[in-house]
Design brief:
Strand content: 15-25%
Largest sheet: 7 strands, mixed
Number of strands: 13
Distance between the termini: 27 Å
Helix content: 25-40%
Number of helices: 10
């Protein structure tokens, strides 16, 4: 029997990519909603409660409203918004962090898909804090380079407008007030005692991102060299299909000592690079903000819930 899927908020970038990933799958049945009824509460309620799994691709307030419409106890929800990522009773949709995370996704009724910037940051910081290498009170900073698709329809339209503003030709730093919406999950999921200083940068390319976390080696409790950290991460993520820890020095051999923001465009996994020297190390996660950073992660969670191959319908 096919799994019935309803996508609430079907016109957004993430929702459209989720639709694309269902092409050719014979194990799911999409429940369509008429365009004129996309904001009709009664119609949404009917379809949500008819579904086996409902995807929420909505702003935070609308996602919370959609959850309130669930009356059928058998309905499972995958939320791609920020609304529920640190809420009690919601599984955090990052299965590679631990077997406990994967089990909660497999058995859960409510799954929150990680934010794109948070995905890169947490992939680097969670293992070190969980393993006691990085003190939870370390005053972390991070920066992120991302394509403009992460800004949604409005930003995409701005960048693709023929008569666009000249400032869009150059990379632009944003969230200057240190109030980015991903900061809460960055802190709470990793176990940090304070939010990191975070500087995201959007540039003139469609998708892909690199999130980097710089460290002073002297403050690490062990594995305090770039080579030691590379070995640690390679061991931590061993056997994970969606996360690849590149060999030490790979950025020089493969990319001429540079990491491109669009280097994983169209790819649904995440690559980790460890660079630096005897005093300082930089941890970098390279992935697609529309892949492991959004719709790809949502489909991976769905596959875990259905018990099929985690990479079904995805590009690795």
């Amino acid at each position: 029997m096919k799994t019935k899927i309803f996508i609430d908020g079907s016109e957004g970038t993430t929702a459209l990519r989720i639709h694309e990933r269902f092409a050719g799958r014979d194990d799911v049945e999409l429940l369509p909603i008429a365009p004129e009824k996309r904001k009709d509460t009664d119609e949404r309620r009917r379809l949500i409660n008819q579904a086996d799994i409902a995807f929420l691709c909505l702003p935070d307030a609308a996602a919370r409203e959609s959850v309130s419409l669930v009356e059928n106890d058998n309905v499972r929800v995958i939320d791609t918004s920020t609304a529920h990522r640190t809420e009690e009773g919601w599984a955090y949709g990052f299965p590679e962090l631990s077997e406990k995370h994967r089990e909660k996704i497999r058995e859960g009724k409510r799954i929150a898909v990680p934010g794109c910037h948070a995905t890169g940051f947490i992939s680097l910081v969670y293992p070190m804090i969980a393993s006691g290498i990085l003190p939870a009170d370390y005053p972390l900073s991070a920066f992120s380079l991302t394509g403009y698709s992460g800004g949604g329809k409005k930003m995409i339209a701005e960048y693709e407008e023929k008569e666009r503003a000249g400032e869009l030709d150059a990379p632009r730093e944003y969230a200057l007030s240190q109030q980015h919406k991903h900061l809460k999950e960055m802190k709470e999921i990793t176990g940090l005692l304070r939010q990191p200083l975070f500087s995201p940068i959007v540039a003139d390319y469609y998708s892909g991102m690199v999130v980097s976390v710089p460290l002073y080696n002297e403050f690490l409790k062990e594995r305090n060299t770039p080579q030691g950290l590379q070995e640690f991460f390679a061991d931590y993520y061993a056997g994970q299909r969606f996360i690849t820890v590149e060999p030490f020095g790979a950025e020089e051999e493969l990319h001429g000592k540079m990491l491109a923001g669009n280097g994983c465009c169209g790819y649904d996994g995440l690559k980790i690079y460890i660079t630096g020297n005897g005093e300082r190390t930089v941890l970098s996660a390279q992935f697609d903000n529309l892949g492991k950073g959004a719709s790809g992660a949502a489909i991976q969670c769905l596959n875990i819930m259905l018990g099929c191959g985690e990479d079904k319908g995805l590009n690795l």
